[in-house]
Design a protein that fits this description.
Layout: H1 2-5, H2 11-31, E1 35-39, E2 48-53, E3 60-61, H3 67-73, H4 98-103, H5 109-126
Antiparallel strand pairs: 1-2, 2-3
InterPro entries: NADKc-like
Length: 127
């Protein structure tokens, strides 16, 4: 995001926001008529509908995918690195995770250098 938009969102506030949303979603569904929850972790495909509520019906969920909401509820918003975001087992260490397979891929070295440059540039402006 920092590279594409030439601006970045503070990580702590973003994590806090995600955590609050995850904690409030089930309660929110009890007081609204309709709700939809999409999983947007797939970089190549469209968002996946994992939870939905229609009018007077109860919330329906994809039991395999809704677990990500529980994981986000327990985020460590004070983490100093991606490895501190989750308690064990930490999904960032697993094959198939975006962090493991894409972000840390050796083929992304130039993109990582560019990202580092823009983060440092943004951080130097705030001080």
């Amino acid at each position: 995001r920092a590279i594409l938009c030439r601006r970045a969102v503070r990580v702590k506030s973003q994590l806090t926001s995600h955590k609050r949303f995850a904690r409030a979603f089930m309660t929110y569904c009890q007081i609204v008529d309709c709700a939809r929850l999409y999983l947007t972790n797939d970089l190549d495909g469209p968002p996946k509908l994992i939870g939905w509520k229609e009018k007077d019906k109860t919330l329906l969920v994809d039991p395999e995918e809704i677990s990500c909401l529980k994981m986000i509820e327990n985020l460590n918003e004070k983490a100093d690195s991606v490895y501190e975001l989750y308690s064990n087992p930490n999904p960032t260490h697993e094959n198939g995770s975006v962090w493991h397979d894409i972000v840390m891929s050796p083929t992304r070295m130039n993109i990582q250098k560019e990202l580092k440059y823009y983060i440092q540039k943004i951080e130097s402006k705030k001080g």
